[in-house]
Each structure stands twice: as structure tokens, then as C-alpha cells.
Amino acid sequence: MNNKLLNPLTLAYMGDAVLDQHVRAYIVLKLKAKPNRLHQEAKRYVSAKSQALTLESLMENEWFSEEELDIVRRGRNAKSYTKAKNTDIQTYRKSSGLEAIIGYLYLEKEDARLAALLEQIVQIVDER
């Protein structure tokens, strides 16, 4: 199956789960705290606003290949029929672009590249 042909919002759906799992593992090991505190910390990494800022940083630093940028653009430009919760549509679309590339790398089994991207995301958020 050619994962490039998947709906970009389907890729974003997958990417959301992959990022959430990575962030949860990271903060559980880092904080060793109670669930409420873990949830509050996780929001710093997985909120649409945080993902949009992270995508901007990655793009400014030319982190993505041309092929990856195409997936990001498709995810960012996809028309969603659900309303963005707690954010504006531009922020929501940027976060969808980041999630789409995460989902794509996961489905393509590009494990090294995916791991590098997830670590970069964590680093960018930690530096804020």
C-alpha cells in the first residue's frame, strides 16, 4: 500500500496517537508524578498551539526533506470537517501537518527518522 495516497487527516490521526504515546512515556519517566500532573505536562507537548510552534521551528531549520514537506503541506492544507477545539483554524492546520508527517513516518516504518523527529519535538518544547 502506498501510504502517500492516504488521506492526510488519516495520517494525522495516526500521528496524533504516536506523538501522544511518545510524550506520555517521556514525561512518565521524567517526572514520576501523579496522573493529573502528567496530564498538565503532556499538554505542553501535544496541544495544537505547541505543535504549530514546533512545526514552525522545524521548518525554519529546514528539518524536513522535500518528500516529507509534501506530506506536511498536504496535512496542513487538508479540509477538516470538524471544528478546531480551543484554537484557531491556522494553528489547527499546522498541528495537523506535523501529525501527518509523524503518522506517515510511522506507517512507512521509517523508525530512525521517526525517532529523530520525536526527539526533536521534545527538545524544542523543552527549550521553550
UniProtKB/TrEMBL annotation:
Molecular function terms, GO-annotated: ribonuclease III activity; rRNA binding
Keywords: Cytoplasm, Endonuclease, Hydrolase, Magnesium, Nuclease, Ribosome biogenesis, RNA-binding, rRNA processing, rRNA-binding
Principal subcellular localization: cytoplasm
SUPFAM superfamilies found in the cross-reference section: RNase III domain-like (SSF69065)
EC identifiers of the protein: 3.1.26.-
Gene3D superfamilies: Ribonuclease III domain (1.10.1520.10)
Top-rank EC class of the record's enzyme: hydrolase
Purpose: Involved in correct processing of both the 5' and 3' ends of 23S rRNA precursor. Processes 30S rRNA precursor transcript even in absence of ribonuclease 3 (Rnc); Rnc processes 30S rRNA into smaller rRNA precursors.
Organism, as annotated: Staphylococcus saprophyticus subsp. saprophyticus (strain ATCC 15305 / DSM 20229 / NCIMB 8711 / NCTC 7292 / S-41)
Cellular localisation: Cytoplasm
Top-rank lineage group of the source organism: Bacteria
GO BP: rRNA processing
Catalytic residues, chain numbering: 16
Domain RNase III: start-end pairs: 10-109
Name used for this protein in its record: Mini-ribonuclease 3
Record text on subunit structure and interactions: Homodimer.
